[in-house]
Amino acid sequence: MNNPVILIAFPLLFAFLSAIFKKVDKTLLGIGLVVNILSLFMVNLGSYNIGGWQAPFGINLVLDNYSYLGVILVNIIIAIAVIFSTKEIKKMPTVVLIIIAALNGMLLTGDLFNLYVFMEIASIAAYLLASMNGKYKESFHYLVAGTLGSGLYLLGIIILYGIFGTLNIADLQNKITGSGVNEAVLTVPLVFIFIGLSVETKLLPFNSWVKGVYGHANGFTGAIFASAYAGATILVFGRVISNIFHMSSGLQNIFLTLAVVTYVFGELAAFAQKSLRQILLFSSVAQSGLILSLFILHFNYVAIILLVNNIVSKLILFTTAGKLATEAGTDEVNALAGIFQKHKGIGFGFSVACLSMMGLPVFFGFYAKVTTLFNLFKGNNLWLPAIILLISVVEGVYFVRMLVKLWNPGQEGVEATIEQVTSRTLKETTKLGIIATVLGLLIICAGIFPSVIQGNVVKAANDLGQNIPTYFIQLTGGMK
Amino acid sequence: MDLGVLILGIVLGGILSYFVTKGNKKVGAYMTILVSLVAFLILFINRDGFSVGSSFYFFSFKMSSIGWYFSMIMLLIYVCVAFFNPFWMEKLLHPAAYNFLYLLSLAGTLGLFFSTNFLGVFICWEIVVWSSLFIIPLGKSRKASVLYYGISAFGSFAMLYGILLLYAKYQSFDISYVLGQVATDPKLATLVFFIIIMAAITKLGIFPFH
């Protein structure tokens, strides 16, 4: 029971059961989530061969500190999202269980083709989830973009297989570093793989699908896409970039430019929006760009720290924004003026998440931002901190503009009074209010005492940066 | 006595005043007067009784003549303004939040004057900014809050860039050590001076940041 395959097998089992026993599918989802969370405490670090064939001939699952951090984050995020939005799940428990299995598989796999398989499963589940909002044209757009991206990813790994004869990540890394192969030979497959992953990680110019899917998300799908999917895909990107990519400086600069441009234009686009989901989706795009630029520059520790801050904050933000859109009838900021006067717990959590995203003390986002800048300066990088700080002003302005309006009703030049608070309201807010308040307090505690998270992220970043074959995987091949 | 304890006490006083205001607005407002007055009296009477230096995590505080002088001016202003708080309680939409943010901004201001390291200065500076930013729209203007934050953030982040530039060179955030070292590098000193002074210019509303 300490084999991490249970993190994939149990959700799949419950997914099949929920498809058969439709009347109790939500109960099975709940049990599946609990079993999965408990399994997280039972698994042991290590490499596990699947199917009796030893790596690199067979597929293996790699549970190191990096993938362990990933599965913990993803599973807890999904569990909280389900608790937040039990009513919104409707006919989707089976899909949610498949999503859990697929995202866990993506994080755990030690094989690039197996990664492709899990990515496809996750993508198909994502298309179904996106269609939950009734916006089929946008879901189809996502399907087309995702399929093209995964097709290019597949082409990239086919070329790598043709060159090196293996798709096992550890074996491939061994062969890439030891073979002395010309970097130019690797350019084409790496570009294809990069494009394939960029579609899911929302990099420009492959993120045209994001506006349609995130922009019409409800409280549940928004949280799943912006937190769980974003976290898993970015962590996978980090793994591939750190362990497989051997880029020439020219290629690295191109990838870095795309990531930084995504960050800059994402924040500028968010500044121009008037509705909550539109603001948050462009903020998510921007944060993806920033985190990926740090992975490309091999600042793994700060990339992971920023990712943790982003996905926890976006969980609260998207859940609230999605619920406002569906229950209050709109997510236009002006139409919701003063709504937090009626829902103070939700407002507290939402505000803390915004202030953490802005990187203000005493929130965890401040620790994430300062550590990022500090590490960049230590690495003699002076231009990226300047861009981050300049664009942070833009980010801060749109978050402040949003918060001021949501807390203070009325027109400009008129004192805010209780009579001016919007008539729109959320229903059944106790659960959301309590969880948002607790998460807000956790963000504040993590900001004041970051060492709680720091140790685990350091271990994860170290494992990511290691030469995998000298870690615990014995690449012997053959049967056990 | 410890400066860090005094500042923490003001923050805790702010949290307490939030909950007290929820029960009774006037009593909560009187708490802000009491806390700011007590802080003023402690600093005035016990000036030389503070321990040489104290630290709490990344905060590090030390009594100094100039810090004491500026904190006396600020505390006097906060005490005087606090006398109007009971009047404002009935008019405000978020009286509890106002009282908490009022005392939080006071704590941040004192931290700013006594901090011995640049990072502590920046953190206290930002605490003052975001606590003020939520107080401003409790008046009549929401746009003022957004403009205030935008311009303040431009200055604060410029200051942060300067602080990190200094850290990259001298491996320390300690103000006296870094200023001693940077004096030997006039070019860096000039560059960092102009970057850091942006924070003051934006906060003071000097043209063109008015």
Any key phrases for this structure?
heterodimer, A: 480 residues, mainly alpha, two-stranded antiparallel ribbon, 2% strand, B: 210 residues, 2 strands, 75% helix
Helix/strand-derived category of chain A reads mainly alpha
Query: Which two protein chains have the largest interface (Cβ within 8 Å of the partner's Cβ), and how many residues from each?
Result: A-B, 38 and 33 residues
Number of helices of chain B: 9
Q: Characterize the overall form of chain B.
A: globular
Radius of gyration of chain A from the CA trace?
22 Å
- Structural class given helices, strands, pairing of chain B? mainly alpha
Spatial order of the strands in the main sheet of chain B? 1-2
Looking at how many chains there are and whether they match, the oligomeric state comes to heterodimer
E-strand count of chain B: 2
Spatial extent as radius of gyration of chain B: 18 Å
Profile the largest sheet of chain A.
2 strands, antiparallel
**What percent strand of chain A?**
under 5%
Beta-strand fraction estimate of chain B? under 5%
What distance separates the N and C termini of chain A? 19 Å
Mean pLDDT of chain B: 85
* Overall geometry of chain A: globular
Strand order of the largest sheet of chain A: 1-2
What's the end-to-end separation of chain B, in Å? Answer: 40 Å
Give the helix level of chain A as a range of percent.
55-70%
The ordered H/E elements of chain B are: HHEEHHHHHHH
Give the low-pLDDT segments of chain B: none
